[in-house]
Amino acid sequence: MDCVKIGKLISRLRKEKNFTQRNIADALGIQSKTVSKWECGLGCPDLSLWPELSAILGVDITQMMEGEITSNKPDIGKIDRVRFYVCSNCGNILASTGSASIFCCGRKLEYVMPTDTLNAPKITIEEIDTDYYITFDHPMTKNHYISFAAYVKSDKFTLNRLYPEQSPTCRFPITSVGKLYVYCTNHGLAVYSDKLK
């Protein structure tokens, strides 16, 4: 570990949060001179303090241990480049419209790449009132089900969460041309780009 880099980062993050060294020390149950030593590069935090320190400063623990925060590229307004993330531990569904560092349950998530459409569920689409009513030919058991369906168009996306033993259907407002993303817990993410027009 580069204690000088880490110390500079801790100092910068502390000042961004308008904390004093004493605020950090009190929150961690240590002496303020210890925080001062870190910021001067004369030592690094004890391993037991890293999780709480990263929570106090509101940063990713891994990047903090490396002594630098990696910024994402700015969102260039292309929502059709949306990326979906699914936590294998709790099932949370997260999305980003550009590169991002996404964490859930203490683990970094990788975005879900669309798979070959050979295993994609068959869908039936009906127009009912102002909505697309979509039915999936897919089991909805506890171990094999569609977790979500998302309709993505040029400036927004709509997400429908589905659950085991629920009817495999969802509705989306009829809008301009978009893509339908469907995530199966066993087969991954499928994209239907020519179905909703």
Report on this structure:
This protein has 197 residues and is of the alpha+beta class. It has 2 domains: 64 residues, lambda repressor-like DNA-binding domains (434 Repressor (Amino-terminal Domain)); 125 residues, SOR catalytic domain (Immunoglobulin-like, Sandwich), CATH 2.60.40. It has 5 helices and 11 strands; from the N terminus they run αααααβββββββββββ. The strands form 4 sheets. A 4-stranded antiparallel sheet has the order 8-7-10-11, with no helix packed on it. Strands 5-6-9 form a 3-stranded antiparallel sheet, with no helix packed on it. Strand 7 and strand 8 form a beta hairpin. The longest helix is centred in the N-terminal third of the chain and has 14 residues. It is elongated. The termini are far apart. The model has no long low-confidence stretch (mean pLDDT 87).
